[in-house]
């Protein structure tokens, strides 16, 4: 099936050559074609260019999108979309003055979600997750990473990962799965964290790998959760199973997790709300993508990742939602892009690069997703009639998406 889109007001993020990530000053450039056409064949991008060069005749369908902008679908490289229930009560507790840390210390937070998830059947967990996935796809997300980490027992971690696997099978969207057994220390291991780490390394990780349920491995490296040494031990052990690290670091404290992650060839380091000079230095000229999660900062009222400074230092930068019940109960990438512009002071061009091609890189998908490139997946957003692409973050909180096309299919 060949579908030709014509009279595109502006086609964004067009990359003729395979570009896998964008760094530093380059991030301020968003290659576009005004008054463009786009040809797709089945699930792939076949051709594109200015309307005046259009000379294609044999197509099955032509769609006139006059006045609309087309951009690649969002690539959300960090989510916890598979979870059970919600943490609305903790939200109210925080409004009433408790901190995220105080709530966690009372047995709330991740442990609260783990308890609910352990008591939820796989079928019910799948149903709840389907609704969230369908919602984010309609909001323009075309590739997504999903973590475990609300199980914290072998059985419940596998349940989460099986649900992710089912989503992969049943939905027309690229999904990458990450094993995050080291998300929090279960209360029964409160006085013996090492025993839980041993359990992850010797029991849960081998089962996850044997069942082939994860591509990536994550650790929440933070005071009160897992130390740098804990993280190193878990990531070292995962090498045997060829799981690539993508890690939670520097959310509340800078404890050296970035340096260790880079050494362990992490594909991405995520959160980064608290960054020391040396953390920025150590990321330079590496293959590790720094990922900011502005909705987490917004929802928890914590500092924003210093994206401006990081990009000005020459680093690449990606944006993701962190969709989860505790620190970011939203999977809306449009809001991520707007919040990054407003609060991190990055430009619409930088934010769109961060949420498309660099997001794809941060989950190992930039060869197939994240830009309008011949041969890549036909994954894109058609906007409503809007004045310019800068209007997308400017008009924050409103949806300016008219149509989402994933793998050539309009959803
Ligand atoms: N920080 C660690 N994990 C999640 C939130 C976990 C939760 O509060 O449920 C995050 O990325 O923000
Ligand atoms: Zn997270």
UniProtKB/TrEMBL annotation:
<feature type="binding site">
    <location>
        <position position="78"/>
    </location>
    <ligand>
        <name>Zn(2+)</name>
    </ligand>
</feature>
<dbReference type="GO" id="GO:0005506">
    <property type="term" value="F:iron ion binding"/>
</dbReference>
<feature type="binding site">
    <location>
        <position position="324"/>
    </location>
    <ligand>
        <name>N-formimidoyl-L-glutamate</name>
    </ligand>
</feature>
<dbReference type="GO" id="GO:0005737">
    <property type="term" value="C:cytoplasm"/>
</dbReference>
<protein>
    <recommendedName>
        <fullName>Imidazolonepropionase</fullName>
        <ecNumber>3.5.2.7</ecNumber>
    </recommendedName>
</protein>
<keyword id="KW-0479">Metal-binding</keyword>
<comment type="pathway">
    <text>Amino-acid degradation; L-histidine degradation into L-glutamate; N-formimidoyl-L-glutamate from L-histidine: step 3/3.</text>
</comment>
<feature type="binding site">
    <location>
        <position position="251"/>
    </location>
    <ligand>
        <name>4-imidazolone-5-propanoate</name>
    </ligand>
</feature>
<feature type="binding site">
    <location>
        <position position="322"/>
    </location>
    <ligand>
        <name>Zn(2+)</name>
    </ligand>
</feature>
<dbReference type="InterPro" id="IPR011059">
    <property type="entry name" value="Metal-dep_hydrolase_composite"/>
</dbReference>
<feature type="binding site">
    <location>
        <position position="150"/>
    </location>
    <ligand>
        <name>4-imidazolone-5-propanoate</name>
    </ligand>
</feature>
<feature type="binding site">
    <location>
        <position position="150"/>
    </location>
    <ligand>
        <name>N-formimidoyl-L-glutamate</name>
    </ligand>
</feature>
<feature type="binding site">
    <location>
        <position position="78"/>
    </location>
    <ligand>
        <name>Fe(3+)</name>
    </ligand>
</feature>
<dbReference type="GO" id="GO:0019557">
    <property type="term" value="P:L-histidine catabolic process to glutamate and formate"/>
</dbReference>
<feature type="binding site">
    <location>
        <position position="326"/>
    </location>
    <ligand>
        <name>N-formimidoyl-L-glutamate</name>
    </ligand>
</feature>
<dbReference type="InterPro" id="IPR006680">
    <property type="entry name" value="Amidohydro-rel"/>
</dbReference>
<keyword id="KW-0408">Iron</keyword>
<feature type="binding site">
    <location>
        <position position="80"/>
    </location>
    <ligand>
        <name>Zn(2+)</name>
    </ligand>
</feature>
<feature type="binding site">
    <location>
        <position position="87"/>
    </location>
    <ligand>
        <name>4-imidazolone-5-propanoate</name>
    </ligand>
</feature>
<dbReference type="InterPro" id="IPR032466">
    <property type="entry name" value="Metal_Hydrolase"/>
</dbReference>
<feature type="domain" description="Amidohydrolase-related">
    <location>
        <begin position="69"/>
        <end position="408"/>
    </location>
</feature>
<dbReference type="GO" id="GO:0008270">
    <property type="term" value="F:zinc ion binding"/>
</dbReference>
<keyword id="KW-0862">Zinc</keyword>
<comment type="similarity">
    <text>Belongs to the metallo-dependent hydrolases superfamily. HutI family.</text>
</comment>
<dbReference type="InterPro" id="IPR005920">
    <property type="entry name" value="HutI"/>
</dbReference>
<feature type="binding site">
    <location>
        <position position="80"/>
    </location>
    <ligand>
        <name>Fe(3+)</name>
    </ligand>
</feature>
<feature type="binding site">
    <location>
        <position position="327"/>
    </location>
    <ligand>
        <name>4-imidazolone-5-propanoate</name>
    </ligand>
</feature>
<feature type="binding site">
    <location>
        <position position="248"/>
    </location>
    <ligand>
        <name>Zn(2+)</name>
    </ligand>
</feature>
<keyword id="KW-0369">Histidine metabolism</keyword>
<feature type="binding site">
    <location>
        <position position="322"/>
    </location>
    <ligand>
        <name>Fe(3+)</name>
    </ligand>
</feature>
<feature type="binding site">
    <location>
        <position position="183"/>
    </location>
    <ligand>
        <name>4-imidazolone-5-propanoate</name>
    </ligand>
</feature>
<dbReference type="GO" id="GO:0019556">
    <property type="term" value="P:L-histidine catabolic process to glutamate and formamide"/>
</dbReference>
<dbReference type="Pfam" id="PF01979">
    <property type="entry name" value="Amidohydro_1"/>
</dbReference>
<dbReference type="GO" id="GO:0050480">
    <property type="term" value="F:imidazolonepropionase activity"/>
</dbReference>
<keyword id="KW-0963">Cytoplasm</keyword>
<feature type="binding site">
    <location>
        <position position="248"/>
    </location>
    <ligand>
        <name>Fe(3+)</name>
    </ligand>
</feature>
<keyword id="KW-0378">Hydrolase</keyword>
<comment type="function">
    <text>Catalyzes the hydrolytic cleavage of the carbon-nitrogen bond in imidazolone-5-propanoate to yield N-formimidoyl-L-glutamate. It is the third step in the universal histidine degradation pathway.</text>
</comment>
């Amino acid at each position: 099936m060949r579908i030709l889109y014509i009279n595109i007001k502006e086609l964004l993020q067009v990359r003729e050559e395979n570009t896998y990530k964008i760094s530093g000053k380059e991030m301020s450039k968003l290659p576009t074609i005004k008054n463009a056409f786009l040809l797709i064949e089945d699930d792939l991008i076949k051709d594109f260019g200015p309307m005046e060069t259009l000379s294609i005749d044999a197509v099955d369908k032509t769609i006139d999108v006059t006045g609309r902008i087309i951009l690649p679908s969002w690539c959300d490289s960090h989510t916890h979309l598979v979870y059970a229930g919600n943490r609305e009560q903790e939200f109210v507790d925080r409004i009433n003055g408790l901190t995220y840390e105080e709530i966690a210390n009372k047995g709330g937070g991740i442990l609260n979600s783990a308890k609910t998830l352990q008591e939820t059947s796989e079928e019910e967990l799948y149903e709840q997750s389907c609704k969230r996935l369908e919602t984010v796809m309609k909001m323009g997300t075309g590739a997504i990473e999903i973590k475990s980490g609300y199980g914290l027992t072998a059985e419940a971690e596998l349940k989460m990962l099986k649900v992710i696997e089912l989503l992969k099978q049943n939905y027309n969207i690229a999904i990458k799965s990450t094993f995050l057994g080291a998300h929090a220390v279960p209360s029964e291991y409160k006085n013996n964290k090492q025993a839980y780490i041993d359990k992850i390394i010797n029991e849960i990780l081998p089962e996850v790998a044997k069942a082939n349920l994860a591509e990536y491995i994550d650790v929440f490296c933070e005071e009160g959760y897992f130390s740098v040494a804990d993280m190193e031990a878990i990531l070292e052990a995962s090498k045997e199973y060829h799981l690539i690290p993508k890690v939670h670091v520097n959310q509340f404290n800078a404890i050296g997790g970035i340096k260790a992650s880079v050494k362990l060839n992490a594909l991405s380091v995520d959160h980064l709300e608290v960054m020391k000079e040396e953390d920025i230095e150590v990321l330079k000229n590496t293959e590790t993508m720094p990922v900011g999660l502005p909705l987490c900062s917004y929802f928890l009222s914590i500092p924003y990742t210093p994206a401006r400074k990081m990009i000005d230092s020459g680093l690449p930068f990606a944006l993701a939602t962190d969709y989860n019940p505790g620190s970011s109960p939203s999977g809306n990438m449009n809001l991520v892009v707007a919040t990054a512009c407003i609060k991190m002071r990055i430009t619409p061009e930088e934010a769109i690069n961060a949420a498309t091609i660099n997001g794809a890189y941060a989950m190992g998908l930039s060869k197939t997703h994240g830009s309008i490139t011949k041969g890549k997946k036909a994954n894109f957003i058609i906007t409503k009639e809007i004045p310019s692409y800068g209007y997308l973050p400017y008009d924050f909180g409103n949806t300016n998406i008219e149509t989402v096309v994933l793998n050539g299919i309009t959803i």
